[in-house]
Amino acid sequence: MAKLMNWQLLKRLTLLQSFILLCVLTLIAVLVVITMEFAWAESLRKRIGETDWVLPSLVAAVLLTVTAGIVTMAVLFYRWKLKRPLEILKQASENISANDLGFRISYDSRDEMGELITIFENMRAQLEKNIKTLWRSVEERKQLNAIFAHDLRTPLSVLKGYAEFLATYLPEKKLSDEKVLDLIHTMNLHILRLESYAEAMASIQKLEDVPVHRRPMDTTPLTALLNDSAEQLTRQVGKRFVSSMEDANITINVDTYVVMQVFENLVANGARYAASQVNVRYVIQDGSINITVTDDGPGFSDEALHKADLPFYRGEMWDANEHRGLGLYVCKVLCEKHEGSLQVENHPYGGGSVTASFGIGLINS
């Protein structure tokens, strides 16, 4: 126990205190050896009498003793106080140079070298944290850019459908002026939505930062706008679209752009897998508007039911090169931003079914 306490006490010595201690011990040892050398010289003088080589030999022995003491003290000080911490710092520096920050260093001495290693470890930990934060930011920006590119396709497809519709029927004068103005108004809404979306995506760093701006809107024009988009999306892939609304017209507080973004993602996914038809059902319930999109396709696999709303999950898609596995993940995040949720399941009669709910802040009925 006494040895352990003495060793712990030695570890607490500073470099200066350790140096002084070694100097004192070395000095004592050197003095002892020099005393023995003088005794040896005196013994020789008495034995062989006065000679010319005894004194020079004594001086040389004393100088060698002092030199040996100094060298020994330096070696002991280096091995005791400097060698181990310098090796630790050298290895840590090599790891950092190799971009390896997944290590930890420690040194059990409480001297200046121990403090230096503690500071170095804190610096390494902070550097590792900063690099992880930077990489996370880069990955979130890459993911956001992918989401942006993915979600631009849907409203652009809708606008393309309207443009083709006008190009087909307007020259034949099969559209009334009222219908043309209505289509132009709807297209303008989609253009404004794209502008707002592009502005928001340029200013945020991750999907969770997407702002939600609620405004009062009647459910009848909202569902009509959504249905128009759905008809364009399903028509382009040769599928039918059917919708139903169980409640009467009421005024709700929603972010139309967020609702449309989620809705169009769900309809686009449904149309991709539907055999012939996509169904949409609107229900106002418990302070939320629930939008259920159902298709008559093969439905979700067991794996997809658990992973479909994870980022970049693709499963076994026939058009995996086009789809990036972002749609349902985007919908999930945006629903939660809008105080709602996303539920993925299979319809009892076959086909996939996804329900998006949004908190609506009911105004009146």
Question: Can you describe what's shown?
Answer:
- This is histidine kinase.
- The protein has 365 residues and is an alpha+beta fold.
- It folds into 2 domains: 84 residues, no CATH class; 221 residues, Heat Shock Protein 90.
- The protein is 62% helix and 12% strand.
- The strands form 2 sheets. A 5-stranded mixed sheet has the order 2-4-5-7-6.
- Helix 3 packs parallel to helix 4.
- The N terminus is likely disordered.
Query: For the CA atoms, what is the radius of gyration?
Result: 40 Å
Shape: rod-shaped
Q: H/E element string?
A: HHHHHEHEEHEEHHEE
Q: Proportion of β residues?
A: 5-15%
* Overall average residue pLDDT: 80
What is the correct CATH architecture of the largest domain?
Answer: 2-Layer Sandwich
Question: Could you name the CATH topology of the largest domain?
Answer: Heat Shock Protein 90
Report how far apart the termini are: 83 Å
How many structural domains are formed by the residues?
2
CATH class categorisation of the largest domain: Alpha Beta
Name of the CATH homologous superfamily of the largest domain? Histidine kinase-like ATPase, C-terminal domain
Unreliable stretches, pLDDT < 50, 5 or more residues? 1-5, 316-325
SS elements, strand count: 7
Briefly note the structural class of the backbone: alpha+beta
Major beta-sheet overview: 5 strands, mixed
Count of helical stretches: 9
* Helical amount: 55-70%
Please give the order of strands in the largest beta sheet: 2-4-5-7-6
GO molecular function, one term: phosphorelay sensor kinase activity
GO cellular component, one term: plasma membrane
Subcellular location: Cell membrane
EC number: 2.7.13.3
